[in-house]
Specification:
The complex is a heterodimer of chains A (115) and B (115). By secondary structure, chain A is mostly beta strands. Chain A is built from no helices and eleven strands. A five-stranded mixed sheet of chain B has the order 1-9-8-3-4, with no helix packed on it. Chain B is globular, with a radius of gyration of 14 Å. The chains are: A mainly beta (115), B mainly beta (115).
Chain lengths: 115, 115
């Protein structure tokens, strides 16, 4: 969805490096999410944020941190990258006013490779 | 957490109706049922959501029996472009409930549509 953008789209880094993945949205949604997807598997939630002051850990937050700089921006950092963090990372947003607040809008993804 | 069970894969032919069933025996009163579609290397895309009975939109129908312990996504007259992975999610995104229920994608069902 063009309303949710992620940078970079592809990134190759080395073990031990700190890297940041950025997500921006123009949908005006308060809620934002970070997921990772390993090949052939479903998405796993890393962190989610219901508003700028509300950030929560997901299923697999170890080794990751986030920053919600503004309503429109939610960044994911890998403190010290390791090879098993090689994955496809997705950012998503949702509007709390929808039924169940459940329709999430996903960005195009960032393919991260840790050597 | 409301755990979901879906078939790992399904095959169909162009023009046929496809029904994908999801089991969710421990669905909670406040939970909604939501289906997403994902193409390779793209973020999931919302298809349909329901709470009970039947919901229909321009691309699919969702059938939910009275006990809500399962749901069936129905795709009418599929085409080759419907080849994708389909995820069933059960839960609700809300600061007042365990938001993790809605944010578990699981393995999904790989639908292959053949000519």
């Amino acid at each position: 969805d063009a309303d949710v953008t992620q940078t970079p789209r592809n990134r190759i880094t080395k073990t031990g490096k700190r890297i940041m993945l950025e997500c921006s949205q123009t949908k005006g949604h308060d809620r934002m999410y970070w997921y990772r997807q390993d090949p052939g598997l479903g998405l796993q939630l890393i962190y989610y944020s219901f508003d700028v002051k509300d950030i929560n850990k997901g299923e697999i937050s170890d080794g990751y941190s986030v920053s919600r700089q503004a309503q429109a921006k939610f960044s994911l950092s890998l403190e010290s990258a390791i090879p098993n963090q090689t994955a496809l990372y997705f950012c998503a947003t949702s509007d709390p006013d929808g039924a169940g607040g459940s329709e999430q809008f996903f960005g195009p993804g960032t393919r991260l490779t840790v050597l | 957490l409301a755990k979901t069970t879906q078939p790992i894969s399904m095959d169909s032919y162009e023009g046929q109706e496809v029904n994908i069933t999801c089991s969710h025996n421990n669905i909670a009163t406040n939970d909604y049922i939501t289906w997403y579609q994902q193409f390779p290397s793209q973020g999931p895309r919302f298809i349909i959501q329901g709470y009970k009975t039947k919901v229909t939109n321009e691309v699919a129908s969702l059938f939910i029996p009275a006990d809500r312990k399962s749901s069936t996504l129905s795709l009418p007259r599929v085409s080759l472009s419907d080849t994708a992975v389909y995820y069933c999610l059960v839960g609700v995104i809300s600061p007042f409930y365990n938001a993790g229920n809605m944010l578990t994608f699981g393995g999904g069902t790989r639908l292959m549509v053949k000519p």
